Amino acid sequence: MAGLIDSNKQSLSNGTGDPIADADGLLGLARGIEDQQAAEVAAPAVEEQYAAAMVEIVEEKQDQASQIEDRLENMIETQSARLQQVQSHPPGMLALPGARAKWQAQVAQAQAIIQTLQNRLETVREIRDGITANGSKIEALAAEKLEHRQPKLADDFAELQEARRLHELHMRQQQGKKQEERQGLVQDSAPSGGLSLSRGLSQTRGSGTA
Question: Rounded to whole angstroms, what are the CA distances from 58 to 61, 144, 145, 158, 161?
Fold first, then answer.
């Protein structure tokens, strides 16, 4: 945005010869500066509000995940105690075959429940502590929650990020153009220097021959 204003300032410094057009251009430049100033003032407020809202939601989700983790751990302990109790009372040698099969089924069922609870516990921990390419998983979930809870703030923050991305892209393009112009000047100056040198050598040889 600053690069655009600088270019406009440079183009208006000499004027176009038309006072109305120059006045309109200066007015547009002034409004652009005003819009830029308003955006610079609003940007920190949007960022602070968005960051504060994200912290609040992340803490909420971390608390929820911790509570779920505690409940699952308690359930695993309870099921483990039941499994130990069942395993400690196997059918005797004189028990009927059906009794041993029933006991084995109870043991297998208790083990399956514990395994399921452990899998759920690992999933909850992965959600709470997992990391993705764009940040933590819980932050991604918090961002989605924020979009539903405060859609205007989420939109303002997204627009701010997009404006900065476009500004950085514009600045890189400007730098690329400047580099191309410099390279073009170097390339243009190199042949002319070589031509002058060749002409000088030709003239020297001609005078020596004469």
Answer: 5, 11, 10, 19, 21
Which alpha helices (H) appear in the chain, and where do they start and end?
A: 2-13, 19-87, 97-129, 137-149, 151-209
The distance of Cα 146 from the centroid of its chain, to the nearest Å, equals 16
Please state, in angstroms and rounded to a whole number, the distance separating the CA atoms of residues 188 and 176.
Answer: 18
Name beta bridge partners: 132: 135
Residue range 30-76, pLDDT digits in tens: 555 445 555 554 567 888 899 999 999 999 999 999 999 999 999 99
Tokens representing residue 42 in the block: 């609003």
CA angle 19, 20, 21 (to 5 degrees): 95
Strand partners, 136: 131
Q: How far apart are CA 80 and CA 84, in angstroms?
A: 6
d(CA 34, CA 72): 57
What is the value of pTM for the model shown? 0.55
